[in-house]
Amino acid sequence: MKLRLFLGMLTLSLLAACGGGGSDSPVVAGASTGGTPASSASSPAVSASAPSATASSPVAGAPVPSLYDRLVDAAEAKRKEVEALAVDGPCETDNQCGTLILEPTYIGPMSKAQEIDYSLVSSTALAASVAADQYNDLARQAVAVQPPDNSMCACTTWGLPTALRCISRKCVRLYGWDAMNLPSPTLE
């Protein structure tokens, strides 16, 4: 009995640590830095009812994609749009650079948000931010209807310190020693 209780508590701990177990996971804003206005546009609608086999399947008798698959496909198309709109220049100062956060479309061992650095003063900056918000809406919907994932969670993530800088009129992500403006360590 004690072992069963311990295993149950361990499972709940892993779910909580990995962000699984429901739709109460934290929401990441579309633009993490900069002064880009929040989008008032709604996300593209994906029908919850299954489409007819003749409308969506090029081959008669082919399986009809699930709601989850349709949401992931719509999110992928929107991700490509975000990547095309989020350009790294021009910029004059570091504060003209920002990062768009694209949430994962599933929660699992290797799910991770994608970061796209871009110029906040480019002609497509606002459109990129709106498209990122629409992508994140689709990603959250996909996670909400995601089929169960029975794999173990590899929750440990870490990385080098980073900094977003404007270098030669382009927004550039620096890592490690470069990001901290410290000289590289030398071995003597």
Tally of DSSP β-strands: 4
Model regions low in confidence, pLDDT < 50 over at least 5 residues: 1-41, 50-57
Strand order of the largest sheet: 1-2
Principal-axes geometry comes out as flat
Distance between the termini: 58 Å
Biggest sheet character: 2 strands, antiparallel
Pairing-aware structural class of the strands and helices?
alpha+beta
Mean pLDDT rating: 75
Assess the beta-strand content as a share of residues.
5-15%
H/E series, N to C? HHHEEHEE
Descriptive account of the structure:
α3 runs antiparallel to α4. The protein has one domain. A hairpin with a 2-residue loop joins β3 and β4. Helices cover 32% and strands 13% of the residues. It is of the alpha+beta class and 188 residues long. The longest helix has 20 residues. Keywords: Signal.
Task: Present the secondary structure layout.
Blueprint: H1 2-18, H2 53-56, H3 67-85, E1 97-102, E2 114-119, H4 125-144, E3 162-167, E4 170-175
Antiparallel strand pairs: 1-2, 3-4
Helix pairs in contact: 3-4
Would you summarize the structure shown here?
This protein is α+β, with helices and mostly antiparallel strands and 188 residues long.
Sum up the structure in keywords.
single chain, 188 residues, alpha+beta, two-stranded antiparallel sheet, 4 helices, 4 strands, 13% strand, signal
